[in-house]
Amino acid sequence: MMSIDLHAKSIVIDGLIISDFDRAVFEDMRKGGLTAANCTCCVWEGFTETMRNVMRWKQWIRDNADLITQVYTTADIRRAKAESKTGIILGWQNLSGIQDQLGYLGLFKELGVGIMQIAYNTQNLVGTGCYEKKDGGLSDFGHEVIAEMNRLGILCDLSHVGARTSEDVILASKQPVAYSHCLPSGLKAHPRNKSDAQLKFIVDHGGFVGVTMFPPFLKKGPASRVDDFVEAIEYVIDRCGEENVGVGTDFTQGYGRPFFDWITHDKGYARKLTDFGEVINPEGIRTIGEWPNITATMARRGWTTARIERVIGLNWLNLLRTVWGA
Questions:
Q1: Taking burial as the number of CB atoms within 10 A of a residue's CB, which of 24, 155, 164, 272 is the most buried?
Q2: Confidence class of residue 298 from pLDDT cuts 50, 70 and 90?
Q3: What does the pLDDT look like over 102-161, one tens digit per residue?
Q4: Rounded average pLDDT over 27-56
Q5: In whole angstroms, what is the distance from residue 89 CA to residue 48 CA?
Q6: Distance CA 160, CA 118 (A)
Q7: Distance between CA atoms of 44 and 63, rounded to whole angstroms?
Q8: Tens digits of per-residue pLDDT, 235-252?
């Protein structure tokens, strides 16, 4: 009961959701007590298709105004909490949406895109993803992009980014950067997981780590339970400190095999990058509506109230305030 009350009164921020968004998902966000979530609106798309995705989000927000509200600032996150709604932070998992135009960054920032991942799994004009055999690092154009993202107040996300490019971005950015949704390779070796050295490097430079529950990257895979997810968070906290860690579940709710085929092929259609196998979320958090079970598990494992509040939301809030400037 104590954990239920704690979850209900806390600011709860999910650093990455890429579900098949519709009203049912938004209702489940409310059931899960989410104050805000970083919701993906670009993966492989170019400028035009990404604009259409943002347009679709604007319509969803209008049509579901009783459940969700758009977030531009951290004040909007607090307002969403006060209004018992879920704040929608528009985010990208690839910079393909700007193509080769630096000025598109400002345009999308005005539309409410506050988080952008530098590369998604493979090479783009800015840098290299984690599934490329050779990581060429941040390009010269990429350095311009990072500087402009800093100026505009857009969070740089490095979750799917290669190790060398990630290091380049961490060193180039004048603002904190994040792995919004990752797991430690110390618990499972995988190209998408981050080594202890990578985790330490990002926080030593003022950065942030969001921990995911995406089953292919967890130690026990599809046999995982909510405790296995919280164990992974504890592992990261032990290396990064509890004030530098949050949750980025990577919920893919509503999607089936065609979606996973799309995201695991380069550009959505080219070479096969990886095979996730069966994607079954950990028992206890199969749906967004079960998000309170994460908080309950933290409490059951002896976490202090202060640590729980930080990790389920306040750490994200502080990071976003720093990067967004409001």
A1: 155
A2: very high
A3: 999 999 999 999 999 999 999 999 999 999 999 999 999 999 999 999 999 999 999 999
A4: 98
A5: 20
A6: 8
A7: 26
A8: 999 999 999 999 999 999
Mean pLDDT taken over the chain = 97
Which amino acid is residue 78, in one-letter code? R
List all residues 6 or more positions away from 105 whose beta carbon is below 8 Å from its beta carbon. Answer: 98, 116, 145, 148, 149, 152, 154
| 256 CB-contact burial (10 Å; exposed 0-12 / middle 13-18 / buried 19+) | exposed
Give the span between the Cα atoms of 109 and 316, in whole angstroms. Answer: 19
Query: What are 49-66's pLDDT values in tens digits?
Result: 999 999 999 999 999 999
Handedness of CA 193, 53, 31, 256 (dihedral sign): negative
Q: What pLDDT is recorded for position 3?
A: 81
Contact 45, 322 (CB under 8 A): no
Whole-number Cα distances in Å, 189 to 90, 97, 154, 216, 220 = 30, 30, 30, 11, 12
Encoded tokens for 187? 């618990």
C-alpha 185/C-alpha 174 separation (Å) is 27
Full-model pTM? 0.97
274: which 2 tokens?
Answer: 């990886």
Residue 1 has pLDDT above 80, yes or no: no
Angstrom distance (rounded) from CA 53 to CA 185? 33
Assess contact for 149 and 95: CB atoms under 8 A.
Answer: no
Residue 262 makes CB contacts below 8 A (sequence gap 6+) with 43, 44, 268, 269
Q: What angle do CA 244, 250, 256 make, to 5 degrees?
A: 175
Total residues belonging to the chain: 326
Residue 2, pLDDT score: 73
